[in-house]
Design brief:
The protein is about 45% helix and about 20% strand. It contains 10 helices and 8 strands. The protein has a 4-stranded mixed beta sheet. It has a two-stranded antiparallel sheet with strand order 1-2. The structure holds adenosine-5'-diphosphate. Adenosine-5'-diphosphate binds near residues 126 and 150.
Length: about 220
């Protein structure tokens, strides 16, 4: 379980000020935020109690560099799939294996979401699925993607509002490189279908990890 420190917008601003100007008195922080010292008191209490800010009597508040890991964990708890996912790359189930390979090259991805004629998710196809056909001697110009894909309902997906930690865990547990980000919709026949709104990949998680370490998130 990840312990999280979730900062409010104002608390994050206080941390920024302390990082840049610390040691700085509560009065001076309040001035910069155009607030009163009294308004800031609960925020400063939370920030010092959690160890993100240090307070020295008669000197002021300053940022505790070691608190980075607390903020890191906080960001992991706060961020959602929609904050990091990439654009979806889809292919029609009737497209040929050859076309899917071309799409992987032109879009620079290793996983494609497969959709039917109505645009709803029916499967996923990855480079190894396609390589299997190539080395098996199948005719890649004739074989449709729909025949080689992993199909619904066996597709592991995530919702835009899912926590990023949940998505990362799914990538690990199911040993896949990417998850379609989906939105559930009811089609005209009253059936529940999945609309592909994004692509959540191991690269998204790796980039987030680096951004957090560089304090860009
Ligand atoms: P690679 O083909 O490069 O090993 P993966 O490890 O992502 O890529 O895929 C392994 C297998 O799992 C493939 O057969 C693929 O069709 C399937 N797969 C990939 N992503 C998903 C997913 N989100 N849900 C279900 N199956 C998937």
């Amino acid at each position: 379980m990840v312990t999280t420190i979730e900062l409010s917008e104002r608390q994050a601003k206080i941390v920024e000020i302390a990082k840049e100007h610390g040691p700085i008195t509560g009065e001076q922080i309040a001035e910069k935020l155009h607030l009163t010292r009294a308004t800031l008191r609960p925020d400063l209490a939370i920030l010092t109690m959690s160890g993100i800010l240090e307070a020295r009597p008669r000197v002021g508040y300053y940022y505790n560099r070691q608190a980075k890991s607390l903020l890191f964990a906080g960001a992991v708890g706060r961020l959602k799939v929609k904050d990091v996912h990439s654009l979806p790359v889809v292919v029609r189930d009737g497209a040929s294996v050859y076309d899917a390979v071309v799409t992987m090259f032109t879009e620079d991805v290793g996983t494609l979401a497969v959709v039917d004629a109505t645009g709803y998710l029916v499967g996923v196809v990855t480079r190894k699925d396609l390589l299997k056909i190539a080395i098996g001697g199948g005719d890649t110009h004739i074989m449709p993607v729909g025949m080689v894909m992993t199909r619904m309902p066996n597709i592991i997906t995530v919702n835009p509002d899912d926590p990023i930690y949940k998505a990362a865990k799914r990538l690990i547990i199911h040993e896949v490189d990417a998850l379609p980000v989906i939105r559930s919709v009811t089609d005209p026949a009253g059936d529940e279908r999945l609309e592909v709104v994004g692509r959540l990949t191991k690269t998204n998680i790796t980039r987030l990890f680096v951004d957090l370490a560089d304090e860009r998130r």
